[in-house]
Amino acid sequence: MEVEDWYSYGATLEPQWKYDEGGHPLITALLESKLPIFEQYLIEWKNFIADFLLISPVPPSDNLSPFWHNRWFDSLDAISLFGMIAQQKPKIFLEIGSGYSTRFAYGAKKAYSPRTKIMTIDPEPRTAVEQLADETFRSTLQSCPLYLFEQLEGGDILFLDGSHRVLQGSDVTVFFLEILPALKPGVIIHLHDIFWPEDYPKDWSKRYYSEQYLLGSLLLFAQEKFEILFASHFVSKQAKLVKIFAELWESPKLNGLKPLGGSFWFRKKS
């Protein structure tokens, strides 16, 4: 992609905020204030430990069931997605960008929330989602009618794992500026590959991801409208919280599963 009228203005493509240097100070303080909430969710999700121990560490033969070592959807992301669906029992789970997450969502639905309707939006899904979802849209987010999102009620889940780039006409731009304002209060929202209070990893600089900067602005300046529920990457750095699932990390059956993640969960308040 050729960029016209480009001046760097000092842009280095180096992480601006690093965890070992305190991260972004305001977002660090905000997430630290939510630690009791994060801990409570993990304690509640531990009720599903038997289900988690049954999930294969490697790709299953059916090519549809979830598995832990998939490289794209880390352990704390899978735990939080499974837990949210099993616990909240949403009427609708609307997913933008499907694949390994769909497998975990379907597993939670099958075991704990059979009435949940799984809907996926993805022009080129990596998994045979038609066998897992109740309704699929092979299209971009930008081309979907707004009523798909306006139908969501409190307790329903809207799950975005798209391009991660804020560009003119991109899915992330439309998501933040058109879809979020249209959502009803109580809708639970998920974004993936979020590293707050750190910046994106240095070895991701050539991806030009920018989604979490919009999220950061929202967290800092719209706290009256959105409630933080869970932050996988931040939790992965908290030894006390990670120990809650020690049985998973120490299980010889799971081939050295690590507490990693990039899921960020929040709920619209008004």
Automatic annotation (TrEMBL):
**Domain of life, per lineage:** Bacteria
Q: Which InterPro entries match?
A: SAM-dependent_MTases_sf
- Its protein name is Methyltransferase
